[in-house]
Write a structure and sequence with these properties.
Length: 708
């Protein structure tokens, strides 16, 4: 089916709509105040990455004369013309939310963020000056610029104070100077409060700015203002020419700090002479300058949201629950062999995954452990267990994906540690990222060799497992075990298996499998049968998948999509997508699971996996999608999807005009999927037997209910 470019949405503009939905949570008065400031901080962090990668990539294309149009028919230059004004408008919206909504509420709640040094009382000013002398001054490096001292290289994302200074003996001659706000010191500085029950904080850059004369003793400070640069951080690696991928990435990481400046953030009251100098020194055009009415870099709000003493202004902390199917005091492999085990994080604890690797490391019957690692935590128990397994004489093979964006440095450290422990470490496949989440344990048992597998939708990261919603499966299924072995043989030896028993693997096989299953639903609908697709993912922008969904919709297939972020599909358009709904859930946890449901004439196929419906996942990465076949577990996964489709508290619905709106709650019972899953997990953890599980999430809505 040929689809007009006008029937697709540009992925960058769609992403901005996603970040706007997160900003919507910061504006939502029904959400606790400290959760709202956390969401505002997330929008700032997201936008930073968007500039460093997406806008930087578009600028590279423009500079290279690349004219090819995107899915929506826009050239890179045309995309930038639409995106840059949108990002500036978005940032204005961020700061309006901060200044007009959140700051007054924080003041009312007893948290005073001192905006200016002059707002300090005399005693507070003395305290701050002493803090500067003892804690800050020794760390600072003032950088004056003249004919003998060139303007320094300003690091990516670093916050700085720029100043114009004049020699006290030559007042008519001004030079530029700059001081980096040290990232090794806390940006949020507590100061004494003179009112009981209140907390006062000031930002580090404000302290430095007002003490700048102590760094330039023979100069007069004409003006001083904070600024920050954002650089191109999209690594360019020629893997075929690289003799050693690890060393090449280490080299490229250093270059990331000095890439082309793509955004210059300055205080909106910055002296125009100083701004002119910064633009000249940093080689920045006017369109890349963003003037800020407030603190530059709102990511500091993540620290503010964690301040002690304000628990009443946050959600009650949820503790991931143990699952009733596992008893850690007995052998985990015996339990997995008995029955597949479904994991639903962060509602279920991540401990089963850690225990799976830990027990394997210490089990004398285990011969080998093989695992992929994409992003892991700073003090990973998974890494520790793998290293212990190697030291215990197990055959340990680990694929550490060095090209995981912004985790490259962390992954290099882990790769070296695992190699030192005796693990065989693979750095990924040439030209592909390995994004799949799989762990294989090979064990010698009384009846022969047995393989145990963990498959997941999320990373082996015990920290993000408390923050991201993901699903996983622990299984001893022989067919999946054979496929898992084939996956690792493919990763380590480039041997492609002639067929797969159960797994669907990208980049060669997965997209075709999805297209065939969509086509099957279309054919069933044309034959007058019930046809239904539910798909949950992070992003949807693959043109062939979208075209297939449009065609299925026109055939009468009911299609319900749960897409957290980018969605290049248009929903509810007559003659194109009137049978397609798109839901986007923005909640306390980051929606990260990928789940796919196909009615299949009543046989109901359910899959989970690591891949979104994006070209990069389907064509340029090693991804694994796996079936859920146990009837009880399949029912639970379908109920997870059903609950998310009923969410009317945290869900946004894509409208035919391209906007996202929250459902109208008038006269309706509020349903928050994430709250429901927390309750379900707590109820399940109380049960000692699986047969007594009280899973009370709703069933799939009928067509009539859905239309209502």
């Amino acid at each position: 089916m040929a689809v007009k470019e006008s029937n697709f949405v540009n992925r960058e503009l769609s992403w901005l709509l996603f970040n706007d939905r997160i900003l919507g949570e910061a504006k939502d008065k029904s959400i606790p105040l400290f959760e709202r400031i956390k969401f505002l901080g997330i929008t700032a962090s997201n936008l930073d990455e968007f500039f460093m990668v997406r806008i930087a990539s578009l600028k590279d294309m423009v500079n290279a004369g690349y004219k090819k149009k995107d899915i929506a028919g826009l050239t890179p230059e045309e995309q930038l013309k639409e995106i840059i004004p949108e990002t500036k408008s978005f940032m204005n919206n961020q700061y309006m939310t901060y200044n007009r909504s959140l700051l007054p509420l924080l003041e009312g709640a007893g948290l005073h963020i001192i905006k200016k040094y002059e707002d300090l009382t005399e005693e507070q000013a003395k305290y701050v000056d002493r803090y500067f002398e003892k804690e800050v001054y020794p760390v600072l490096t003032p950088m004056a610029v003249d004919s003998s001292r060139p303007f320094p290289l300003i690091r990516n994302k670093s916050l700085n104070i720029g100043a114009l200074i004049a020699d006290k003996n030559k007042k008519d001659v001004m030079d530029i100077a700059t001081v980096q706000v040290p990232s090794v010191l806390p940006r949020v500085v507590h100061i004494p409060s003179e009112t009981e029950g209140t907390t006062n904080i000031i930002l580090l850059e404000e302290i430095i700015e007002k003490n700048l004369e102590k760094l330039f003793l023979n100069y007069e400070i004409v003006c001083a203002h904070p600024y920050r640069v954002m650089r191109n951080a999209d690594l360019s690696i020629d893997e075929e020419e690289a003799e050693d991928l690890l060393k090449e990435i280490e080299k490229q990481l250093k270059r990331r700090q000095w890439g082309e400046v793509i955004r210059l953030e300055v205080a909106d009251d910055m002296d125009r002479r100083l701004l002119k100098e910064l633009k000249k020194r940093l080689i920045v055009e006017d369109e890349a300058v963003i003037k800020i009415n407030g603190p530059i870099d709102l990511t500091f709000l993540s620290k503010v949201s964690g301040l002690e003493g304000f628990d009443k202004l946050r959600y009650k902390k949820y503790i991931p629950q143990p699952i009733p199917e596992l008893d850690y005091d007995t052998n985990i492999f015996d339990q997995i062999r008995e029955k597949d085990i479904l994991l639903h994080h962060p509602y279920d604890e991540f401990k089963p995954v850690i225990e799976f690797i830990r027990q394997a490391a210490n089990d004398p019957r285990v011969l080998a452990i093989k695992q992929t690692l994409y992003r892991v935590s700073g003090n990973s128990p998974i890494i520790a267990a793998l290293a212990q397994a190697a030291e215990n004489g197990k055959q340990v093979t680990v694929l550490v994906e060095l090209k995981a964006r912004f985790d490259e440095e962390n992954n290099i450290v882990w790769a070296k540690k695992l190699e030192k422990a005796g693990c065989h470490v693979i750095y990924g496949l040439l030209g592909l990222k390995t994004h799949s989440k799989i762990a294989l344990v090979v064990r010698r048992e009384d009846d022969g060799i047995k393989r145990y597998v963990h498959l997941g939708t999320g990373n082996y990261n015990d920290i993000t497992a408390r923050l991201y919603t993901d699903t996983g499966l622990l299984t001893a299924n022989d067919a999946i075990g054979e496929d898992a072995t084939a996956v690792f043989n493919m990763l380590s030896g480039y041997s492609e298996p002639p067929y797969w028993n159960k797994l669907m693997v990208a980049p060669i096989w997965l997209k075709d499998k999805f297209l065939n299953m969509i086509k099957r639903e279309e054919e069933n609908a044309r034959a007058g049968k019930n046809a239904h697709i539910i798909a949950k993912m992070n992003s949807l922008c693959d043109p062939s998948i979208i075209a297939a969904l449009y065609q299925a919709s026109n055939a009468g297939v009911k299609i319900e999509l749960i897409v957290r972020g980018i969605c290049c599909l248009k929903a509810g358009i007559p003659g194109l997508s009137e049978n397609i709904e798109v839901h986007s859930i923005v909640g306390n946890f980051l929606e990260h699971a990928r789940i796919f449901y196909f009615y299949n004439d009543g046989f109901e196929d359910v899959y989970m996996g690591s891949a979104d419906w994006m070209p990069r996942n389907l064509d340029k990465r090693v991804e694994i999608t796996f079936p859920v076949e146990d009837p009880d577990l399949k029912k639970r996964v379908i109920e997870i999807l059903a609950t998310q489709l009923l969410d009317n508290v945290k869900a946004y619905i894509l409208q035919p005009d391209g906007t996202y709106k929250k459902p109208d709650l008038r006269g309706k019972t509020k349903i928050s999927a994430q709250d429901t899953f927390c309750t379900v997990a707590m109820e399940r953890s109380k049960e000692k037997k699986r047969t007594n599980d009280r899973v009370f999430v709703p069933q799939l809505p009928s067509s009539e209910e859905n239309q209502e």
